[in-house]
User: Fold Putative ABC transport system permease protein from Pedobacter xixiisoli.
Amino acid sequence: MLLVFRLIGESFRFAWDALRQNKLRTSLSLLGITIGIFIIIGVFTGVDTMRNKIQASVDKLGSNTLFVQKWPWIFGDSYPWWKYVNRPEPSYRDYLALRERMESAKGVCFEISSGSRTIKYRSSSVEGATINAATQEYDQTWNLEFENGRYFTESESKSATPVCILGAEIAEGLFGSAEPIGKQIKVMGRRVTVVGVFKKEGEDMMGMSQDKNVLIPMSLAKGIFDVNNERYNPQITVRGKDNISLEEVESELKGQMRAIRRLSPGQEDDFSLNKTTMLSNQLDIMFSAVNIGGWIIGGFSILVGGFGIANIMFVSVRERTNIIGIQKSLGAKSYFILLQFVFEAVVLCLMGGLCGLFLVYLLTLAASGIFDMPVVLYLNNIILGIGVSVGIGIISGFWPAYSASKLDPVEAIRS
Assistant:
């Protein structure tokens, strides 16, 4: 153990001497390592931040939730829209049948939405609001948090009571700091009473937020517009019970939908069952491609830096040949000489890698301030950067170190 510490200490001293005595040559070689680590870890940090933000958005949909819709969540250039364009939209009738039949579901909800609406309260108005209408089970299929007030009662949902729940931005735009609960606002020409306000969420990476939404009961919406019309994006949301797997829920839902639509065994489905794993898989594919790009670009810089470090180590061996001869003549083993130069190469690479990590850290601070979004240099990326630096140091320093360990002590001293 003492030998290892001694080797590391000497290696730091020799590496520092190389950097101090040959500033330009060593700095240029370290620059390749610095840029390579900066690119690789910078890309990984950005990808991890984006992935976590988007995954948080996806998680809002629920890991055990399925969406019965006309169009599937397919991504790519070759989207076969002609296969789906003539499909019927999920209907209120489908919802009623599923609600009666689904045994593995915790909640089955029918939803529609209408965007770009204006909400008014006396002289105040908010534009660009989205009107969401849903059946009573909406709170069972979505995770709702309230800043103030409550959810609809069952009697309100059944009797088309003119009530609504506001998103935080809508409530702030209409009432400011005043109490919104119990006030009457105008929604699509109808006066409705505010019974609740959702907790402020802030817009996420996928644009999903309740902040600009107004939720009304489905029974009320039926008297305002056609709830089965395609332009209102009707969908049925099904959340499975906690003790039942998503695959079981999906299997039952598919069977029940085929029965409701009266599809024969040979017919294709005329509906889509979308789920969050479809989004997660697409994200994994996309971010994997970005990570590979980061490795390729950063790899070239690291390769150049590795050759530079190897060159420095060969020069260092040549300059210290007589010292190596003296060490060997005093009894130093070959492995001691080899480790000494390998550690020196590792230390040099670590200097470059730490500089790269420091630049990434500065970048995360700048990005967090500019984009008002927390960008974090995760520990696993720091460990990866240090690990890559150590690996490059071992690879680039091994051959010079090996050639130094094989020197004849007499010839080395005479040189």
